Structure formats: C-alpha cells, structure tokens
Amino acid sequence: MNFFRLTAAVCALWLSCWGMLSSTAQAADAVLTYSEAMTRAVGVDQNLAALAESRRAEELLAPTQAELPDPALSVGLQNVPLDNFSMTRLPTTMLGVTLSQTVPAPALLRARAQKTEAAATTTGAEQALAAQTLRRTVGEEWLAVYAAEQRIALLQAEQGLYERLSQSAQTAYSAGRAAASDWVGLSVRKAELADQIEAAQGSAAEARARLARWLGAAANRPWPDHLPNALQQAPAGQWMAQPELAVLQGRLAQARAGVNEAKAAFEPEFGVSVGYGINAGSMPNTASVGVSLSLPIFTGARQTPRLAAARAQADAAQLALDDRAAQIHARMQAARAAEASLNTRLSTYDRRILPELGRIAALAQNQFGAGGGDFSAVIQAEQALIAAQQARLDLTIDRARSLLLLNYLLEQFP
Prior knowledge:
This protein has two domains: 29-68 and 104-265 and 302-409, Outer membrane efflux proteins (OEP) (Up-down Bundle), CATH 1.20.1600.10; 70-103 and 269-298.
C-alpha cells in the first residue's frame, strides 16, 4: 500500500512539474504585443518611480506651508551685579522666561501652501508626461522591430522567387529564350538580398536590445504578424489633455501663487510675546505681554521689485503654455493630415496598384509558359510587384508612426 501511495505521489509531482515547464515554454513562445511591451516598461521604469516619490513628498509638504512658525522660548537673567554676581543683592535681579509667537500674514501662508500644492500637481503632470513619453519610445522601438521583421519576410519571399526564376532563366537560356544578362541580373539581385536581410536582422536586434532595458528577456520573444488597432486606426481624444500642457499649467499655477506670495509681503507680520519674571530678591514676580509689528515701509527697494519679478514669471509661464498649446495643435493637425494621406495611398495600393501588378505578373508568366513573351518581361513584372509590396509596407509603417504620434498627443496609449 505504501509503495502505491509513493508511486502516485511521484506521478503527481512529475505531472505538476511538466505543467509548469509547459506553461513557461508557452509564455516564452507567446508573441510580445504592443500593449504588453508598454505595460511592462511603465511598470519597471525607475524615472517614473522617482517622480512618484517626489510628488508624494510635495503632497506631504503642502499642508505644512499654511501652518504658523514654531513658537520660541527664551530664558535669561536680568540685572545681575557684576562685582559679586549675587542673585539676591539687587531687588531687580530676576530670572525671565519669555514665550513668543510670530504670526505671518494669512495671505502669505495661503500663497505658500498654494505654491507647494501647485508644485505637487506639476510633478504629477511630469510623471504622466514621462509615462507618455516612455510609451511612445517603447512603441517606436516595438514598431522598429515589427518593420524589420516584416521587411525580412518580404526579402525572403523575394529571395525564394529569384531562386525559382534563376532555375527558369537557366532553362530558358539553354532553350535560347532568355539572355545571359537575365540570369546574371538575378544572381546579382540574390546577393544584394542576402545583405539586405542581414541589415534588417541587425536593425531588429538593435531595437530588441534597446527594449531589453525595460523588458529583459521578453524583448527576444516573437513579434505579431499584424499591427494592433492602435497603429491602424486614428484615435479619438482631446489634445488639450496632453501632459506637456498639464506640466506648463502646473508651472503657471506655481507662478501665480508666487505673485500672491509677493503681494502678501506688503502686509505686516505680527508677533506676540508673553514673559514671566522670577525675582530673586524681595520684589514680587512680574509678568509681561508684548506685541510686535513689522513695518514694510520701504517697499520700493524690496517688495515692489519682487512683485514685478513674480508677475513677469507668471507672464512668461502663460506665454510658454500658449506657445506649446499652439505647437501641439499644429502637430496634431499635421499628423492627422499625414494619416489621411497615407490611408488614401494605402487604399490606392490595395484597390489598384497591387491587383494590377499581380495581374501583369501572372500574364507575363502565362505568356512565357505558353512559349511566347520575353523572360525579361517576367522578371520586370515580378520586380515591380515586389517593389510595390515593399512600398506598401513602408506606407504602413509611416502611417503607424503618424498614429503613434497622435496617440502621444491625445494621450490614448493602451
């Protein structure tokens, strides 16, 4: 009985390990999608983590800016005779204890709190902008690998086609139906293709190496054969929500809080003090109360220039925001126009150019196979079809880059 139980336990353990190995192998073979690459990168980026900590620090600091300064406690001896330092000789000798509290203008405290809150908001916007920029960078690298992989597939298909055409060229040359230059031209083109395939493989490897900074070993997983919808369809959204503008809006809020802080400097600062004197002689103990008031009467040399400088900074922040908003709007309009133009061109390739070139290539092959036509015409037709396929791939990648920019501008990344 014990033997059977042991055997069953071993089998169960083996099946469990096999399942874990199988699931690991399947994960390693799964394609690395566009959205997964971005999610992984955002999850491990250290700059985003640093900005999150900075924002947290500023959020913790903001409430403290509206608090009163700490009170001050002072202890001192008064009227001590210097000839014998007696504490009882003079009736005015005493130990004084004073508690004082400075009370800044309420508007000053509010402005300081607003300034720190605006700084926290700005840091949050910088965090969102850094995440958006990171997604765009990862998307560009992902797209670079995709483009290289698709180009390799086209080049390899072209290579296989030329292998078949080379055999046909040799046969046609032997039968006197093809020129030696046809076969030589195909051989030269095959050699060029081998170099182009190696170059595309190198480009893909470089992009994968750059992605490995965030993705690690996942950067070496297979790539999908098709682009995601985010790189095929125009996104919807409002460009006014772009994080770049949110950062500038936060800086403008900081500058405006600085103006309020400079205005509050014109208001006086109060101070309150309470003292208690312990008399060392026969005199009774004493109490004292005092109020102090700052006198900002020389504003032309201090407060007025600071207010003018704060207003200039606020004006500069507003102009920077307006200028960047105009730039982003123009970039969005240009990207939409480029995307529309590329869609039209791709539609033309799909509806007219590729079908027509495919028909011409088939016709040339049929004519040559039937004993008519020229073999060079077959080669030219096939090369024209392949060139059109590569041109369509280039247009597809260009459109994907335009959509990648639109996703960045409209904050529509997955």
